[in-house]
Specification:
Layout (H helix, E strand, L loop, with lengths): L3 H13 L8 E5 L12 H14 L3 E5 L5 H5 L3 E4 L9 H12 L3 E5 L8 H11 L1 E2 L6 E11 L13 E9 L2 E2 L4 E12 L2 E12 L5 E5 L11 H14 L11 H4 L5 H4 L3 E3 L10 E3 L16 E6 L7 H16 L2 E6 L2 H7 L5 E4 L9 H12 L3 E5 L11 H8 L1 E6 L3 E7 L13 E6 L2 E5 L6 E8 L6 E8 L5 E5 L5 H4 L2 H14 L3
Parallel strand pairs: 1-2, 1-3, 3-4, 4-11, 14-15, 14-16, 16-17, 17-24
Antiparallel strand pairs: 5-8, 6-7, 6-9, 9-10, 10-11, 12-13, 18-21, 19-20, 19-22, 22-23, 23-24
């Protein structure tokens, strides 16, 4: 026994001093933009994902020009995200063949699944496991629903089925030996519903290449979704033959993954041969309210929602609660009941008000909110919470919000620009980011509490630049206004999640 312990100490020292794994080397093969605003934005993907991958610990580079032999020699995973990804020149094909033979990894996204022509379909199919076939394969742009069919894959673990606006491909030419990870309903009628076909798969050859293929990717904003980011980053790690597929999925880069009951959103799939009874829908049953309110450790955060024009339960309850719990700093509860609110509000540190129903504003609830503010506690006014909701309660907007909104752009993509990046609420938030949301026309009230604007957005539908994130300079309470948050495309965006967490933390600073 005396000789064992020194040996163990030496062994332990050896293990502790083992060199760290080399960074995964990634090259993004991009191309020029090929579609309208917000679609097939290959330059934007190249611009955003090279730094994202580097921040995640990879060693990433990329170009719209095919990589040189030297660059491929220094590449573990080649991401192809461009129009007609299988369009290789003869000299490029030689490099691809050598890269595949030595075990290089491929990640192929959306239109990069297209081969150059019928004569190259079989080659591309053998390289990545499948290919778009001209005059056979079809596409459908609009709402789509991904259903994960392989839960044993480490790529899909913990990811809920989800819907989003994008584009499916169907009737592709796929090998029999691919591993299908997810399917989506197509417009092809099958029985009482629609035929599902593969949209995400993996393919590998023993001792040679691996390929991870992600057919969605038409709509650029979807690359900001936490679930899409997680799947792609794991797929990249898998293609690079890493043992830990979460090597790149850093929480600050990916954001909190929205749970199943939130992400399984209602999606409509419409077919040109749909039956008269109408389109099929995939829905999820959601709880109407929390069964009970209990507090744990950490900052006590009370989310208040309810009203019209928004799915408060899905997004302001389940999604935001998941985001805050993932931060590990908060104890969180949600209610839409003014009775529950009045009963518990005295015990909380921060109120997050997204409620827009006048029914909530009972005399007791109004008093409780202002008592909370007078006690110097925190308030975050979220999305619908900065609207002019109460005709008979002007003090809410004048004193708590410093103004309000009575209109917004149609739901769509726009850019948020940070105007005061040094403010603690903006820590970890990009200086500009794109979001699909309702751009609120928030107007400060000249007779109300002054505000300090931290981020703005410029409307393309009505002249003006409007506050999107701001601090209300209430003499006692610490109040933040955050206009973002209409649906999943906002609540799953890491920038939104970071802003919500930062806003709550800032209200607690002394």
């Amino acid at each position: 026994m005396r000789t064992v312990f020194p040996f163990l100490f030496v062994l332990a020292g050896f293990v502790l001093n083992l060199p760290a794994a080399e960074p995964l080397r990634v090259f993004i093969r991009s191309g020029p933009k090929s579609h309208g605003v917000g679609d097939h934005d290959y330059p934007a993907f190249l611009r955003d994902w090279v730094p994202l991958l580097n921040a995640a610990g990879a060693k990433a580079a990329g170009s719209q020009i095919f990589p040189t032999a030297a660059e491929l020699a220094e590449t573990d995973v080649l991401i192809i995200h461009r129009q007609v990804g299988g369009d290789f020149k003869p000299e490029e094909k030689v490099l691809v063949d050598a890269y595949a033979k030595r075990g290089g990894g491929f990640v192929v996204i959306h239109a990069a699944t297209l081969a150059a022509g019928d004569d190259s379909v079989l080659y591309y199919k053998d390289l990545i496991g499948g290919s778009w076939r001209h005059r056979v394969t079809k596409w459908k742009e609009g709402p789509m629903q991904l259903r994960f069919t392989d839960r044993d894959s480490l790529i899909t673990q913990g990811i809920a089925d989800f819907g989003m606006k994008d584009e499916i491909y169907y009737d592709m030419d796929l090998r029999d030996d691919i591993r299908s990870l997810a399917v989506a309903p197509t417009p092809k009628k099958k029985g009482d519903g629609f035929e599902e076909q593969t949209q995400i798969w993996t393919y590998e050859k023993a001792g040679a290449q691996r390929a991870f293929v992600f057919v969605p990717g038409h709509t650029y904003t979807n690359f900001s979704r936490s679930d899409v980011k997680t799947i792609l980053l794991r797929g990249i790690a898998w293609a690079g033959k890493r043992k830990n597929l979460d090597e790149l999925t850093k929480p600050k880069l990916v954001g909190a993954v929205i749970p199943p009951e939130v992400n399984n959103v209602t999606t409509t799939v419409v077919s040109e041969v749909a039956p008269k009874k109408g389109p099929s829908k995939v829905t999820a049953a959601l709880p109407q309210r929390a069964e009970k309110i209990e507090w744990g450790t950490g900052t006590k955060v009370f989310l208040i929602g309810g009203g019209s024009s928004h799915d408060f339960q899905r997004f302001f309850n389940l999604a935001d609660v998941a985001t805050l719990k993932a931060a590990g700093k908060f104890s969180v509860n949600y209610t839409e009941s003014p009775v529950d609110f009045v009963e518990h509000v005295k015990t909380v540190d921060v109120l997050v008000l997204s409620v827009n129903t006048p029914a909530f504003a009972t005399p007791a609830a109004r008093k409780a909110i202002f008592d909370h503010a007078a006690a110097g506690k925190g308030i975050v006014l979220l999305h619908a919470g900065v609207w002019y909701n109460y005709k008979d309660w002007p003090e809410y907007n004048r004193e708590l919000a410093g103004g309000g909104s009575r209109g917004h752009d149609r739901l769509g993509e726009y850019e948020v620009k940070v105007t005061k990046s040094e403010h603690p609420i903006m820590k970890g938030v990009p200086t500009s980011f794109r979001i699909t949301d309702e751009l609120y026309y928030f107007q400060p009230d000249s007779a109300g509490t002054p505000i300090e604007v931290l981020a703005t957005a410029t409307s393309t539908q009505r002249p003006g630049t409007y506050p999107q994130v701001f601090v209300v300079k209430n003499p006692k309470a610490r109040i933040v206004g955050l206009t973002l948050g209409h649906d999943a495309r906002a609540h799953s965006l890491p920038a939104y999640q970071q802003l919500l967490q930062n806003a709550i933390l800032w209200t607690q600073e002394k």
